[in-house]
Amino acid sequence: MKKFISALLCVSSFSFASMIGIDALGEEQIAGGSAAMAGRGFAGNAKTGEAEGVSVVNPARQGFDSKVVMNLNFLLDVSTADRSNSHYTTNNVSMPSMNLSFPMGDFGTIGVSLWQHYASSIREDVENEEEDWNSRIEYQSSLYELVPTYAIRLPFLRPVSLGASAHFVIGSFTRNLMLGPDNSEIAEKDSWATNNAVVSDYVTGDWEIKNHPAYYTFAAQYRGRMASYFFSFTTPFTLRNELEYNFRFSETDTLAPTHYTREIKVPAMLATGVNYRFSKRHNLMADIAWRAWEHDVENVAGSWDMAKVTKTQSDFNISVGYQRDGSDIFYDAYWDRITYRAGVWYKSWYVENVSEIGGSIGAGFPLGRKGTMLDFAIQGGVRLTDDDRNWSESYIGIRLGLLGVGSWGKTRGQ
What we know:
Helix content is 5%, strand content 58%. It is mainly beta. The chain is globular, with a radius of gyration of 24 Å.
């Protein structure tokens, strides 16, 4: 079956965001995933303002918000994969994140975010006329996190905010590898005499955290007159994926299922960032996040002699961005009220020998007088690898975000 898997990955046309790590955790979304963050290269977790809202890397930031913030984000990207003489193009649509934060004055700020941390998605059909077989490969995995947050500014030191968040993991994993007969060259009247058996390896399972309901992030932020800084620590945790393997011959003949629980040890993460403001509305920002992986990631694998693990490396992300804030005066020219953004990033994946370089531009378009904004970002990049087993990838994507700002709980005029 090694020949089958190899041929399948070589000749199929992909429908996924990334092929890298699909049997492990899949593609990791850079923390946050909002259109505003994407427009400035995923930098700016230290940036404060009336409508910055929840940051899954820096929960302390929301302690400086003065208004209710709701943010919905969508991603459409087109990816290509290259290896040897093969070249494939596909597209993907997802909702990387949504969040809501609610300031409570001297009692701090509470918030909640839904964030897609890891994902893999493939569904392809392949036919090989020379060897008279057809096959299908399907992966569908989404690991979402529900992240409640709380932050409060210190009453005796107002420039400092402390924050914490809990990450509750939800999601499921499904994989189906199917090998069936190819009857395309046989007359329909004679097809009854052929072997119609379809062999499939079907795996399902749910994601959870071992021995704990959640893992946690703790952060501190300092907001100065010109510069803001944050530092955060995210605890290590172990993901559990309780899998059920079903090996099937045709639709009706299924062997007794087997069960296995794979465990993936995710290390602690350290993150820091700075935002420097100059000329009132211009911002330069830089963020760094780092994890030191010590253990390989156990693959779903199963039958057909597939690789048991995905080798890992220390992963880190460095982002540098720029943002010119739009004017908050409604009667200024519209172009002056638009927020402009640009940024670049470099990411070393958790998968060994895989790195990513990307860049982006974006803008925030105000809608009405109350602070509602439509965020737009164009991002693109390449994923490079020194390993012949992985594909080199390039991608371009569009992110859209709807930012709603309000003053709930306050009477008109406050």
